[in-house]
Specification:
2 copies of one chain form a homodimer. By secondary structure, chain A is an alpha/beta fold. Chain A contains 7 helices and 6 strands; from the N terminus they run E-H-H-H-H-E-H-E-E-H-E-E-H. In chain A, 34% of the residues lie in helices and 16% in strands. In chain A, helix 4 runs parallel beside helix 7. In chain A, 46% of the residues are buried. The A-B interface holds A 3, 81, 87-88, 90-91, 93-94, 97-98, 101, 108-117, 120-123 and B 3, 81, 87-88, 90-91, 93-94, 97-98, 101, 108-117, 120-123. Strand 3 of chain A pairs antiparallel with strand 3 of chain B.
């Protein structure tokens, strides 16, 4: 059975929506995603660096549309590992696993890897929104569309725009 | 540069000492390590399962003798990754990274992996006290002596009894 590495932020967790909500709560201003194309998340939101280290940010993140059904599908067909860059923000670690248990209860703790860098994780297929993770990966690379990677054109990756897309590709 | 995977519990963190301290605090009884040879940690300590899920258990664990000097030595000579089975106990995750930052400040967040199972982590050398982790590993296997693995005799692993031993082997 092939092993699929599935990213969390930007693939399962809707961190853009969460940044928007936090920003609006703090400043009263709405930030439009169209103006953030090609900019990394933490540079795109004025208070992003503060919010990403604040308690509850990851624990209360919205779930990306279709990801529950999509991950269930993958989990029946592949060895799924959830692989998230998370050790940079220690407070996020417990929150991320609690969040996974709440929204994706069919994913066991044995299937979760929280790391700094992903280049030492083995797999056949990787679904990620960040080229920096995909570029070190030896298997099939699937890039999940998010504003920050919107300008990227590359034959290196298969682009998917939704979990519907993921299910039709895999 | 070769990549060395270094376990936390039983290699860097003295979880036996921590279990003994928690047990004594709870029951007033001292538990002798000699009587625990060949028994897995959570079966060896009467209240182990309760203590391992309690707040602060991992955050306040004592450091294994010689591990700071030993890990510093490895970190200059190898690509070191700290790889810990931790997602079974979500509360341990943030505690473990905070603990590493306190006692091993020369280890970056980029060098930390917290997982359920270690079999998808790539490396050349693994230092671990649990055969279940070493058995799936393809590189050089170094078993760090702890009471639970005391009865194990195998040519599959190089046994080390201390961080002094680690430094003379690597």
């Amino acid at each position: 059975m092939k092993q699929v590495l599935v990213d969390m932020d930007g693939v399962l967790a809707d961190v853009y929506r969460q940044f928007q909500l936090y920003e609006e709560r703090e400043t009263g201003k709405q930030i439009n995603l169209e103006q953030l194309v090609g900019i990394l998340e933490l540079d795109a939101f004025p208070n992003g660096k503060k919010h990403v280290t604040s308690e509850g940010f990851f624990r209360t993140a919205p779930v990306i549309d279709g990801s529950i059904e999509g991950l269930k599908y993958l989990n029946e067909k592949y060895n799924v590992l959830i692989v998230s860059s998370a050790t940079e923000f220690p407070q996020s670690l417990t929150e991320k696993v609690d969040w996974l248990h709440e929204h994706f209860p069919f994913i066991s703790w044995k299937q979760i890897i929280l790391c700094g860098e992903k280049k030492s994780i083995r797999g056949d297929i990787m679904i990620d929104d960040h080229p920096k993770n995909l570029d070190f990966f030896e298997g099939k690379k699937i890039i999940f569309s998010q504003p920050h990677n919107g300008l990227l054109k590359s034959d290196q990756y298969k682009r998917v725009n939704s979990w519907q897309d993921v299910m039709s590709v895999l």
